[in-house]
Amino acid sequence: MKKTICFLSGLLAGFWVCAQEIVPPNTSVSSPVNNTFYYGFEASGSTAKWSTNQSSVWSISTDKKARGSQSLQLKIENNSSNAIQSFVTPYTISKVRSAAISNTESMIIASSYEGRVLGINYTGAIVWDTALIASGDTEPSLTANNDLFCADLNNDGIEEILAANADGVLYCLDARTGTLLWDTKGISQINNVTPMYAVCVVKKQGTPYIACGNYDNSLYYLNANGTFNKEIESSTYSRLRVFGSFERTFFKSNVHMANFLRPIPVDVDNDRLGMVARNNHMQTSGMFYQFEPLENLPIQINGARANDGVGIVAKAPVGDMRVVKNPVDNKNLIIFGNSAQSINSGSFTLNPDIDNYTSATNIGTETINGTLIDIRGVGYADAFGYRVPQTELVNTTSGQIYVTFFGSDAIIQDPTNLSNYRRIQSTYSYNDMWKDTVTDRVL
Questions:
Q1: Residue 204 and residue 185 in contact, taking contact as beta carbons nearer than 8 Å
Q2: Nearest Cα residue to 200 out of 322, 326, 118, 369
Q3: DSSP 83
Q4: What is the 8-class DSSP label of residue 82?
Q5: What are the φ and ψ backbone dihedral angles of 357, each rounded to 5 degrees?
Q6: pLDDT in tens, 367-420
């Protein structure tokens, strides 16, 4: 079955904030109403006319009018073909990322359920299609990639692709050609039996290190060339408890796996490692830890127990994690999407400003955890099934917006007024989403 990859350009904003005013007869034109979908019909006489505050998108014209002296035109003729584009692939695409191949150009990176990794350019051409074959093997793994991460590992301006595969191996590919550069199959210190689940790259004094984790409850660091650096066993610091009375052979307290790993930028040369830790994927949201790269223990939280993390408040296990810049203060903000029945689904936030934590729950009087969008509150009270909301902060010609993909719908929010949202329904579902920071497109 062929599946498609879609991307949206900045024109998305035009369909959200382009608002008009309904003008009653014989009433003068006032300021346009923002963030609504009213249309201003020309009233009788000369006191009321079409009105818009989005001149970059709407224009007032005397062409093709039915009655009256003016008509309203949507100015997308020259750009409409670029607003939303779909690319057909031979596979079911489960994950999508982007990799910079120059300062101004990027490649769409897609992964199929069979674990194939594709490089696609923005004309829709499949530049390369790679089946992952581990060192010493002759056949592809044919298992899915649980995580993808792209970063420049050798400072040549071209990002490499890291694929954490369910076969227990971490693969590194060239973004331009799809050539396999190295993998972890031959590293004896890494357990290649349990699935590799999470991967990212963090910088320490300008040097990149690869952080990865699998189901053996350890965090691993690799050097940029794929050689082994160190292992950190979660049993040396974990405070995660098993939910209720479910402690069994496979669910043990004080150990965990890395559900998600992502860099939290500090400055141009340094990151902190953010980890969503869990020991039971069915009942708990897990705990959030932060590490200085290569350190054995998590960063100590002021006013908390030794090695304590922040309990994630997300109603259910976390199914998505990404780090954005808070549009309110331009500081780091973590957004989680949970994995729950849709009536309990939502996107939740966590403030990672650990230097100012006053406890494991607060920064002064402010809570560390917050809610970005409650799915039940936006019209899903009668929906059923498990879906993971994925939220990204998107730049548009009219400002920044939050875009959440949820099942077959997109939800658009005003960051300055989260209760101001629009729900856009479609007939197909979204498996994954990503923001290309080079082109500012949403994949």
A1: no
A2: 322
A3: H
A4: H
A5: -60, 140
A6: 999 988 887 766 666 555 678 899 999 988 788 999 998 888 888 888 888 888
